Amino acid sequence: MRRDMDDTIHGWPYEPEPGEVIAREIRARDGRMVVQVRIELGVLQMEVAGRPDGNRPHGFPTYLDYLRYRVSGKQQGSKGTSGGVMHPDQCVEADREFVQFYHRRVAWLSLQRYDRALQDADHTLALMDFVVDHGINEEYIASHERFRGLVIFHSTQAAAALALERRKPDEAIDLVREGVHRLGDHHAKWTESHGETETPDQPLIEQLHVLEQEIRKNFAVEKTLREQLDEAVAEEDYELAARLRDQIRARAQ
Predict the structure, then answer these.
(1) What is the H or E stretch that residue 166 is in?
(2) CB-based contact 71:77 (threshold 8 Å)
(3) How far from chain centre, in Å, is Cα 22?
(4) Range with the poorest average pLDDT among 98-107, 175-184, 240-249
C-alpha cells in the first residue's frame, strides 16, 4: 500500500492569492468526512468534529474538557491544576489545541461553513477564558489574549453570515455591531493593561464597520429593530419600546 501523498499534492496545486486559505471537505476511504488545508509543504487533514486531530485527550472530547474536569477537583494528581493554576505541561497541550482549532476555523471560513466556524471560534474563546482564569502566569495569559480580537472577529463574521443565510439582515447587522462592541472592549482592556496604543483589533473593527455598511446597502436596512428599540428607550417612549421588544422576540422564534 502506498503511503506517500504524491497524488494528493500533485493534483491540488498550491497557488493561493494573498491571504487566501485553500481548503476542501472530502470523504475519506472509510466514508467519514474530513477537512483538508493545502499548505506550501503539503496538506493538513483534520476531523470535522471534536478535536481536529481526532484524539480524545485523557478520554475527553477536547483538552479544554479535560482541563475543566481537573480544575473541578473531581480528580487528584500531581499535575492537576494545583490551586487552580495550570501546570506547564498543561500549557503546552492547551497551546496545541489552540493551534489545531485555528487551522480548522480558518478552513471552515474559507469553505463558507459558517456554522462549523462559529463552533470552533466559541471553543477557542472558551479555552482563552480558561487560560485567563487559570494560566500559569501573566506572560502566558497575554500570549493568548493578544489574539482574542481575531477570534471575536471570526466569530462575528460567521454569525453574521449565518444570519444572512437565514435572510435576516437586521439580525446580521446587530451581530456585527455587537462584534464591534466586543472588539472595542477587548482593545480598551488590552491597551490599559499593556500600554499599546496600536493593536491588531483596530483594522478588524474597521472591517466590521465596512461589513455593516455593505449589509445595510445590499438589503436596504436603515435601522434595525434593536436600534429602533434603543432610540425609543432613550426617548422614554416606552409604549413603542414594548412593541419593538415583542417584534424582536417574535423574530427570534
Answers:
(1) none
(2) no
(3) 19
(4) 240-249
Q: What type of residue sits at position 121?
A: A
One-letter identity of residue 211: L
Q: Compute the distance between CA of residue 104 and CA of residue 47 in angstroms, rounded to an integer.
A: 9
Q: How far apart are CA 253 and CA 242, in angstroms?
A: 17
Residue 214, amino acid = E
* Those residues with Cβ within 8 angstroms of residue 199's Cβ, 6 or more apart along the chain or in another chain: 146, 149, 187, 190, 191
User: What's the rounded Cα separation, in Å, for the pair 197 and 188?
Assistant: 9
Rounded to 10 degrees, the C-alpha dihedral 63/66/71/74 comes to 180
Q: Residue 8: pLDDT above 90?
A: no
Backbone angles phi, psi at 39, to 5 degrees: -125, 170
pLDDT, position 78? 42
179: pLDDT confidence band, cut at 50, 70 and 90? very high
Q: What is the pLDDT of residues 66-118, one digit of tens each?
A: 999 998 876 554 445 556 899 999 999 999 999 999 999 999 999 999 999 99
How far apart CA 246 and CA 253 sit, in angstroms, is 11
At residue 36, φ and ψ (nearest 5 deg) are -120, 145
Handedness of CA 81, 82, 85, 87 (dihedral sign): negative
Residue 187: how many other CB atoms lie within 10 Å: 20
Measured distance CA(53)–CA(103) in Å, rounded: 11
Angle at Cα 33 formed by Cα 49 and Cα 112, nearest 5°? 75
Phi and psi at residue 32, to the nearest 5°: -75, 155
Three-class DSSP category at 122: helix
Q: Would you call 208 helix, strand, or coil by DSSP?
A: helix
Q: Are 222 and 216 in contact (CB under 8 A)?
A: yes
